[in-house]
């Protein structure tokens, strides 16, 4: 491991480490207005959902690392404490990147980046018609954390109204994560496209608690074959199969391999097929 | 678009919409201790980096939606304001999910989920030996936002020390986003694996500002072939090619298609190959 003391590291290097490490980051495409009503639109990946009661999103337009000046978005929410946070799918990523350029204050990035303004219902900034999801927000507070170049300005946003494209919804009106095509920000100029084969499911822990790694039989825990991901699936069972079941399995499968590694390989195949019970029987029979 | 008023929506539905929409989210695997020194380890996807000066991470152990009780992690950082935020790559995702189960307070999820404790240098909670990146943090403040079930508790963390696995680094000691294998959280039980084909590059806007969509020739802007992503790449040029260059291109390419759509298709191919200049020449010649 390389150990890094932030106090001994340049802002430029810190930003490289943090953006490369804390990833993929969701992107807030923030629409704001200044006191004169001039519109700004800019992407921020120092952003996430944080609370449900009220629905709370937080993003940070940091002081510019280059010269410690405030971003236009920060100036705008200080003047008019309202923002529409629009989300970005893959089809919009190049346009949004274009909107991140440092156009002078007062230049409308909707125009520069080719997006369409739609009036909001509860706030003054317009929303992005092309975005599959938009949140109309009141800025509840702005909390500076630290000072100087690169310091955070946490913009705490309360969501007043959400707009969700029907094309993301399943037959029950819920968002289906196989229908979304979100992009996340990574280090440097890298992004991640969160769809297709990149998306996978992890079964939540049981309501009844899993036995845990400490209750795995020694020979399983120290397997030369099974990975941590596989052991975790095994440890998430609430109890090991009972003896009669194990005996039945042995009777039904006369030619079980004597070699432990081979047993573990077959258990691994059962896990890949989603059959944790058979995997356990293969290990215990 | 479906419009949703949070005030009229159940917490359960809100959480479905927000987790499905604001994605992929990075995951903080937080190690904390209580006053008696008992260790807790739990994942949180309401998390991100926010500031560089000082280096600031924020995560939120929300009040439980079910019964409005505080999570053990929150109780711990209230007792001992220190945390190690470990990051998760694909090889650790099943074990981390196991650690998210509601084991009673005082149960050490390092043990239950099969992780190895490594002593930290600056704080009391141990770090996860298996994590490719860990941040030793002092909790600077805890800011509740809202109240009741699902309300946020922003834990503002100042990074004192970072540990980064050498295997993520390039020859200059920087994180290489083609070497990381991060996972992000999505809606329901879905995750995203941010590596391989899911990772792509978007060239940053020029230092010299791009001409923008408003300066695209009408016929290009209204193309039936070129996508928003392609138009954005074209609009990111600081000036259109000059007349002599266009004439040279015409001379060198005698059989340019007369059909505009066909020209746009070829421009699209040049863009896919990373040659924006040729794409423009194809459109203008």
How would you sum up this structure, described in words?
Two copies of one chain form a homodimer. With 285 residues, chain A is of the alpha+beta class. Chain A has two domains: 6-196, Roll (Pnp Oxidase, Chain A), CATH 2.30.110.10; 213-284, no CATH class. Chain A contains nine helices and 13 strands. Chain A has helices at residues 11-21, 72-79, 93-99, 109-113, 218-221, 228-235, 243-252, 260-272, 276-284; strands spanning 2-4, 28-33, 39-44, 47-52, 55-59, 82-86, 117-118, 127-128, 133-145, 152-164, 182-185, 190-194, 199-201. In chain A, the strands form three sheets. The first copy, chain A, has a seven-stranded antiparallel sheet. The first copy, chain A, has a two-stranded antiparallel ribbon with strand order 7-8. In chain A, a hairpin with a 6-residue loop joins β9 (133-145) and β10. In chain A, α8 packs antiparallel against α9. The mean pLDDT of chain A is 96. At the A-B interface, β1, α1, β4, β5 and α3 of A face β1, α1, β4, β5 and α3 of B.
Helix content of chain A: 25-40%
Q: What's the mean pLDDT score of chain A? A: 96
The major pleated sheet of chain A works out as: 7 strands, antiparallel
Structure class of chain A: alpha+beta
Low-confidence stretches of chain A: none
Oligomerization category of the chains in this entry: homodimer
* Largest interface, C-beta within 8 A: A-B, 125 and 124 residues
Please state the second-level CATH architecture of the largest domain in chain A.
Roll
CATH superfamily annotation of the largest domain in chain A: Electron Transport, Fmn-binding Protein, Chain A
C-alpha Rg of chain A (nearest Å): 25 Å
């Amino acid at each position: 491991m390389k150990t890094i003391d932030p106090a001994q590291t340049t802002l430029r290097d810190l930003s490289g480490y943090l953006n490369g490490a804390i990833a993929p980051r969701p992107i807030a495409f923030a629409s704001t207005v200044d006191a004169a009503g001039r519109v700004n639109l800019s992407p921020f990946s120092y952003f996430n959902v944080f609370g449900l009661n009220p629905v709370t999103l937080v993003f940070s337009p940091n002081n510019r690392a280059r010269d410690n000046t405030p971003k236009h978005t920060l100036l705008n929410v200080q003047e008019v404490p309202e923002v529409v946070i629009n989300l970005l799918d893959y089809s919009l990523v190049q346009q949004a990147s274009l909107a991140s350029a440092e156009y002078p204050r007062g230049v409308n990035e909707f125009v520069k980046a080719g997006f369409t303004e739609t009036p909001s219902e509860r706030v003054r900034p317009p929303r992005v018609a092309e975005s599959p999801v938009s949140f109309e927000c009141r800025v509840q507070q702005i909390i500076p954390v630290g000072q100087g170049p690169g310091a955070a300005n946490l913009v705490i946003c309360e969501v007043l109204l959400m707009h969700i494209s029907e094309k993301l919804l399943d037959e029950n009106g819920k968002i289906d994560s196989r229908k979304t095509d979100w992009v996340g920000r990574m280090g440097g100029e890298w992004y991640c496209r969160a769809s297709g084969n990149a998306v996978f499911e992890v079964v939540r822990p049981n309501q009844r608690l899993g036995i845990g790694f400490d209750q795995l039989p020694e020979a399983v825990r120290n397997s030369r074959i099974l990975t941590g991901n596989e052991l975790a699936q095994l440890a998430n069972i609430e109890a090991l199969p009972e003896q009669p079941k194990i005996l039945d399995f042995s009777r039904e499968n006369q030619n079980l391999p004597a070699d432990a590694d081979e047993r573990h390989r077959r258990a691994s195949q059962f896990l890949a097929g989603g059959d944790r019970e058979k995997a356990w029987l293969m290990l215990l029979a």
